[in-house]
Design a protein that fits this description.
CATH superfamily of the largest domain: GAF domain
Largest sheet: 6 strands, antiparallel
Number of helices: 14
Helix content: 40-55%
Distance between the termini: 87 Å
CATH topology of the largest domain: Beta-Lactamase
Strand order of the largest sheet: 3-2-1-6-5-4
Number of strands: 11
CATH architecture of the largest domain: 2-Layer Sandwich
Structural class: alpha+beta
Length: 387
């Protein structure tokens, strides 16, 4: 019996698909950073040299809060932008690796309306509230809807925002667990989603799920390694690393950067009088006050003992001083419920400031300036800010 005539074409298509999946898999193995993994996944789904969808969005399960969190979305915000991007890609002969490398040098995600929308979404894991994404998660199977389909829920948050004509959702599986959902559609080319497209996207999603899980395990290990066990803040070693990284970024992008060095006043006396257990309770309360008083984007570290450091990206010294004063006042006004026989009525904090590149242009010089300012605050009577 002779083989069907279309066998060579089928074999060629399979080779192309396997080569593409191999290339994408290799790209995902180049990093363990979650944001970079997500970018590689979504770039592979949307690239003309990848799976070729117009836009793609990725949502991950947050088991603690019982929601699907929008993590990243890649795709044009308009048909005009789509045409500009595709024309540029064709003209410049940009391949998949070029697009992946673009993550390091591009601010596209920061300016993307689609990405902002996706990152704002937190959808319940219940089907009636989480819509088609929750349905995909609970069923554990790809779901394909087109113009002829009846959407299961007219109040679906994601579909009401995106208004897709046709789309595919695919579960992201890691071993025997579903950790998220991938959404893809073609709102600009209106290209139909074929069975072959669904099949290869599903194969790819299985690879992507494992890559994401590996990244999450790596980040959990990293967090444990770099976290102070008492306060839950980042530790001294991680501060040194992050400060150097942020200085390098500030130099490159010509952006301001400030640091706050803070030391709890008279803490040694308190610790010696009432014991380390009481002292540890105070340090935990201080850590909580720092988190509440600083901004969400600020990174807070336990520098050592009763000394803390705060790294403030894109922040000049005037703005840093405002935040420092808010921290100083919060600690001064807080009722630590101290033993009545403690000599100091209130626990307070002294703060030293330093700004890149106003005060210094290297890590060691910046730290030296902040330490000097902190020493000056102590000499001026404590409970104040210098720098």
């Amino acid at each position: 019996m002779s083989e069907p005539e279309n066998t060579p074409n089928e074999l060629q298509k399979t080779r192309i698909e396997l080569a593409l999946l191999y290339e994408i898999s290799n790209a995902m193995h180049t990093t363990l950073k979650l944001d970079e993994i997500l970018y590689i996944i979504l770039t592979a789904v949307t690239a003309h040299v990848g799976l070729g969808f117009n836009r793609a969005m990725l949502f991950l399960v947050n088991e603690k809060e019982g929601v699907l969190e929008g993590k990243m979305g890649i795709g044009p915000d308009s048909g005009e932008e789509a045409n500009q991007i595709w024309t540029c890609m064709e003209k410049e002969s940009i391949d998949l690796q070029d697009l992946i490398n673009n993550y390091q040098v591009s601010g596209q995600l920061a300016n993307s309306q689609l990405n902002r929308i996706v990152k704002s979404l937190r959808l319940p894991l219940k089907e009636e509230e989480g819509g088609v994404l929750a349905m995909t998660l609970l069923d554990g199977m790809p779901l394909h809807f087109n113009r002829e389909s009846t959407f299961p829920n007219k109040d679906d948050t994601l579909l009401n925002i995106l208004k897709p004509e046709e789309f595919i959702t695919v579960p992201l599986k890691a071993k025997n667990k579903i950790i998220g959902v991938l959404f893809a559609d073609n709102p600009y080319t209106h290209k139909p989603i074929t069975n072959d497209g669904i099949r290869i996207l599903t194969m790819f999603a299985n690879q992507a799920g494992l890559a994401i899980e590996n990244s999450q395990l790596y980040e959990q290990t990293l967090i444990k390694t770099h976290t102070d066990s008492l306060t839950g803040l980042w530790n001294h070693g991680y501060f040194q690393y992050c400060l150097q990284e942020e200085i390098t970024a500030a130099q490159k992008n010509k952006q301001p950067l400030s640091i706050i060095m803070a030391d709890l006043d008279n803490f040694k006396s308190y610790n010696d009088t009432f014991g380390h257990q009481k002292g540890d309770q105070i340090l935990k309360q201080i850590a909580r006050l720092l988190i509440l008083s600083a901004r969400k984007q600020d990174s807070i570290y336990r520098y050592g003992g009763e000394e803390f450091a705060i790294l403030l990206q894109h922040t000049n010294k005037q703005e840093a001083r405002f935040i420092a004063e808010r921290i100083r006042a919060a600690i001064e006004q807080y009722d630590f419920q101290q033993p009545q026989n403690h000599s100091a009525k209130k626990l307070t904090i002294s703060i030293g400031l330093a700004a890149f590149s106003e005060d210094a242009q290297t890590k060691d010089a910046l730290l030296g300036h902040a330490d000097k300012a902190l020493y000056e605050a102590k000499n001026q009577g404590k409970n104040c800010i210098c720098g």
